[in-house]
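Thread: adenosine-5'-triphosphate complex, take 2
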Amino acid sequence: MGLFDDILHADETLFKNPVALDFDYIPKRIPFRENEQRIIVNNIKPLFLKRNGRNVFIYGSPGIGKTVAVKKVLEELEEKTDEIVPIYVNCWQKNTSYKIFLEICNQLDYKFTHNKNSEELFGVIKKILNQKAAVFVFDEIDRAEDVDFLYSLLEEIYLKVIILITNFQETIANFDSRIKSRLLPEIVEFKPYSLRETFEILRERAEYAFYPGVISDEILQKIAEIAYKVKDVRTGLFLMRESGNFAEARSSRRIEVVDFKKAAEKLSEFSIKSKESLSEDEKLIFEIIKEMPESKIGDLYKEYVKRGGKGVYKTFQRKINKLEKNNFITVDKIEGGKEGKTSIIKANEVDKKLTDFR
Ligand SMILES: Nc1ncnc2c1ncn2[C@@H]1O[C@H](COP(=O)(O)OP(=O)(O)OP(=O)(O)O)[C@@H](O)[C@H]1O
Ligand SMILES: [Mg+2]
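Output below.
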């Protein structure tokens, strides 16, 4: 090999298909979720016989394949039959019954939605879907501001399966009893992947994303170890992309440990930015949590007010939930003591974990 053979030319890239590292990319295979997918499919199967299916409630922590596993099921369902209509709605983006009905109309290619209210839109949906069967997926269901739409679908669409996805097991307990007693879903917990599974998933993604030889198993193993520790495949995808960018910036044909290290340094910045960047108020809360490890939520709130925090307690609690959902902190609910139930809050040590790997 010549001394300069390792140099990347200006018009070359390490990325065969950079899209494969996008968080919403759907790979051909979804390994290690076959059991969960099988349960979902079994609940959909009766629809093929024009019998009602069973609803499914899916929960599990962020970045462990809930969305991608379910989207894959819908994709295959769509290929298999025209008689069962798949509908997917993200309730973070469409967070009211009206917006959800409007979105379903759009997915059904119904164009005359203008000036129609919720009830009229639902009338259209009912008319179209009651000629067939439907599988509805409502992802991030905990973000929906009202769930009246669920009641309408449960009551008035005859052949259907409703699949709900959330990070929180409690979401379902908070539904009102009218909905709970009609939904009666099979509950499916998605558990985090093992280290080996995390490695395999990332290796498959690397094969789609990079040209052969760009990323070694040694680097992939380092990336997988971090993604495994934080229990989030997205972290691994981020590290692959950033490592690739750093290697490219050095005009190297291969990702080396230095590139991985630089990418890992960017990770705490990434987690701060994950999903939505934190507001000033949320940053203040996170700072306080880091300074007062293992404190009770009430004490943290007092400190927050002392430092000029303006939110009322309810808002504060909501922000704590958001920090938890995005993996910044861990909340332990404890019983007992004279105060009854309380929550103990801990900052997640993403930075410290990373230095362990350097
Ligand atoms: N088994 C798997 N095979 C291939 N890719 C996977 C697998 N599990 C997760 N991923 C990838 O990891 C990323 C995160 O997965 P996904 O979006 O499904 O997470 P999620 O569980 O829905 O998280 P959240 O609760 O934050 O929405 C996606 O890019 C997804 O493609
Ligand atoms: Mg998801």
